[in-house]
Request: fold
Amino acid sequence: MTSTDTRPELAAGLVFPPGFTFGAATAAYQIEGAVDADGRGPSIWDTYSHTPGRTFQGHTGDVAAEHYTRYRDDVALMAELGLSAYRFSVAWSRVLPEGAGRVERRGLDFYSRLVDELLAAGVDPWLTLYHWDLPQALQDRGGWAARDTAARFADYAGIVHDALGDRVRHWSTLNEPMCSALLGHMSGQHAPGLRDAVAASRATHHLLLGHGLATRVLRDRGAASLGITLNFTPMTPATDRPADVDAARRLDGQQNRMFLVPVVTGAYPEDVVADLAAAGAPLPVQDGDLATIAAPLDWLGVNYYFESTVQVGVRSPEKPTSFIGGEDVVELDPEGPTTTMGWGVSPEAFTRLLRWLRDQAPGLPLVITENGSAWPDEVAEDGEVHDPERTDYLFRHLAAVREAMDDGADVRGYFAWSLLDNYEWARGYAQRFGLVHVDYGSQRRTVKDSGRAYADLLRRHRQAPEG
Ligand code: IFM
Reply:
């Protein structure tokens, strides 16, 4: 290494311990396409994205990045980048087209081939069972607002484990249940697109119950590396006025604590329980549920993108709140540069979050299961994708993780969001999060500069002497 080498990770002196997992993440509906292939049943995202007015320019996941047919090339890309792990999700309706009952072997076989390909390439599969794509047939029976869906989720978990548990070690039950519950049922920005506080509260509890039931099923089948993936947005009051401080407490309660605290302690936070009851949307807890939800885990998946500053104020009718009883709270525009999502860039808040999690969940290893940023990437005349903002974001956030580790946070791995540009839900294909650019016309993949920089960091760690 020469002193003139200015690669950002060297400038930041980034060194992670031996055995640290470096990966990238995706999710089924965002990349697979092939929505009618091999007996797949429709999911709530098929319905939602095909409903006029729901998504950016009517974009759907019908084709996406064609990963279903191009998965071998995509695994080859992962190997080229030197990823030690790949986090992906299984589409429930490929495995159980009606959500329950009849199993579609061809759907399971796809994931089986994918896992084999990953293992052959030396990439460790990290499987997420649910990344927002509930089978439409289950939505027709009440979706997550119905308690029965939790039990169906546990059945599905067992079926997937029976097919892949001999090769997949790392299992996550849910991805970001906060989004499923609150964006899906309160603000309606996500499928199933409801604006109903009671349904949002019920979905919250049933998602967590489903997590607990599935955890038990997976554990009984011998799964040894089990987690849940939660998304965290640190909330800061805009002023020290009591009303703003309380607004931040309420949003922090539903965004961050309502999902974490029951999983690690077996009780919902009392203030959140009171807020939901006051909003006429009490959590539908039955005897024994909280013990189920608190089933022991091996790691906590942490997704972090940005922080938020909040105060009481008048919301624009175009921006319905995602928070139950949050109609009087506004989130301020971030200061400084923003990504194309409109999100600010706050690595310091990431370090603070990880320190907070160190204290909230002592003894539970943390894995960064998502972190990344969207920028207006284009293939340049030289055929490359120059994305200095993403490289900067990536390494500043890796440095933030490292700093938290120095402060005692037990972080075991980092997955960049995302491996590929993909379908960013209601924001469609306009938002590019990938380390690898996808030209949606030709499906050509181009590793971005940020992907190369990440690969450099990974190579350096592979070459580092052990110990
Ligand atoms: O694309 C999403 C992902 O599906 C879940 N976490 C946040 C990402 C960026 O918005």
